[in-house]
Specification:
Blueprint: E1 17-18, E2 21-22, E3 26-30, H1 42-50, E4 53-56, H2 59-68, E5 78-80, H3 87-98, E6 102-106, H4 118-127, E7 132-135, H5 140-148, E8 155-159, H6 165-173, E9 181-186, H7 191-202, E10 207-212, E11 220-225, H8 226-234, E12 242-246, H9 256-267, H10 272-283, H11 287-300
Parallel strand pairs: 3-6, 3-7, 4-5, 4-6, 8-9
Antiparallel strand pairs: 1-2, 9-12, 10-11, 10-12
Helix pairs in contact: 6-7, 7-8, 9-10, 9-11, 10-11
Amino acid sequence: MDLEEEGGESLPARDRVSGGRALVPGLHFIATPIGAARDITLRALDILREADVLAAEDTRTLRHLMEIHGVPLAGRAVVAYHDHSGEGARARLLRALGEGRSVAYASEAGTPLVSDPGYHLGRAAIAAGYPVYAAPGPSAVLAALTVSGLPTDRFFFAGFPPSGGSARRKWLRDFAAVPATLVFYESPKRVGEMLGDLVTEYGPDRDAAVCRELTKRFEEVRRGTLATLAADYAAAPVKGEIVVLVDRAAERVVGAEEVEAALRERLARMSVKDAAAEVAGLLGLPRREVYQAALELEKDR
């Protein structure tokens, strides 16, 4: 019986080869284009052509990509594996691995496991003792870093922020002092609000970049300070996939008087915990040290 998208038990074994060699059994993660279809690698196409079982975050996207590059399904179904698939789809793929099959999994776009449901599939395969392989390729994170003009020696990928204002500001605050270029994904509907929150939490002068529709026809990269970019996007709705990058905070010596003044101003309207968290993020200081200073000030009030 063929393995179906919504059910089934197994797929007929095939004597497949890839690049002149048999495609080894195991889970093969494939990076897929984030825009331009020609960005897929030759190795990824080989794996898609020769794998016993195909799985994808978006089955329509993978089918279309295979059609563009002339890769036949050859009687194989494409198993849907996404955030709403449940345990059943993962169990079927693990069963195929247990039968000694080769399973290819493709993200909807970009590298699997980066803001992608493939993480749990990979963890389950590793826990069960099955080999896991990666066919590297397109990545919105790395593409954005390449064109941003910001430092690439160290970077921190934070993913999508919360959608709500207060929750987003609190979430952003945790990364304020990270000594690396920060990389975020964001919805085009919320990018203006997010940039405004970045100005509030990180200050107006940090260098940043907003990358939109990378590798696509209307690719756009805007660079400037957070204040400049926030103003640009405040009243200008945009469309497409968005990556926001922010440079690390400039290193500076913070004196005790500056810390005390910042804490006193916030303690007048905030709890000790919240005041310490905000000042620590703003000044790039260890939260525990600032919290202790806030406790001492609170005792003297």
